[in-house]
Amino acid sequence: MPSVLIVGATRGLGASLTSHYSQKPLTRVYGTSRSSTAPTEPTGVKWLTSIDLSTPNCGTDLASALSKENTKIDTLIITAGYFGTESFDTGPDWDKELKMYTTSSMGPVFIVHSLIKSGILEKGSKIILVSSESGSIALRHPSEGGGNYAHHASKAALNMVGKLLSLDLHDKGIAVGIIHPGFMRTEMTKGVGFDKFWDAGGAVTPDEAAKSLAEWTEGFGMERSGTYWAVRGPGDIGTVEDVTGKKKGDLPTPMELPW
If both were cysteines, with which of 50, 58, 170, 197 could 201 make a disulfide (CB 3.0 to 4.6 Å apart)? Predict the structure, then answer.
């Protein structure tokens, strides 16, 4: 029976992924929650509570909880994140930056390391790190402007983490993928005022994004380990035509993204 672990499973894309996999027959689904109280839905999910990627013991806590289940994980998807807005005019925010870096790019290293060392991830396992096109340095362009420093930089750091982990885990036969899941209509994007861009930016529901990500993950393996992809293609990447010099319709879906 295949097993899937969603880290950051209670909101947005993570919640939709958890729901998606829980509906697949003969699939064992684990989901993490920062809260000490497990959600009641969806049914059939084994909840692992009090897992906070902004804390240094997140990896050992998760490995300990899973060891009690006496299980191996076939697919690990880390989708936990935090977005705090910043601009040059108002200045950077230390606390927001610290939370974005620890959650997005530090926590995943500790999670993966602990699960590998505890034998929960092994040869044939897949690791999917949910990043964003915002982490691509090459895709930044004057048409978009600056600001949101730690949002972009923490995702760029996650991309580097994914690349380095793919090198460390190559001989173990564990594939690492880094993905942009698409621009989504979530409470997170609404909370930072990005809902005004939903229609023009082609934002999709988390359920739609989860389906695309799961389908892409199904075909992902060692031959593409350490690469960075927009699983839904370039349609929601506002700078892609300026940077590539090509129309979105002439670019592939899925699309491998430049670093």
Answer: 197
Q: What is the pTM assigned to this prediction? A: 0.96
Buried b (16+ CB within 10 A) or exposed e, 225-237: bbbbbbbbbbbbb
b/e map 90-99, b = 16+ CB within 10 Å: eeebeebbeb
Q: What whole-number distance in Å separates Cα of residue 61 and Cα of residue 53?
A: 10
Residue 42: CB atoms within 10 Å: 16
Residue 55 to residues 37, 107, 128, 130, Cα–Cα distance (Å) = 18, 7, 21, 19
Query: Residue 135's closest CA among 216, 51, 239?
Result: 239
The whole-angstrom separation of Cα 178 and Cα 143 is: 25
Instruction: Give yes or no for a cis peptide into 25 (omega within 30° of 0).
Output: no
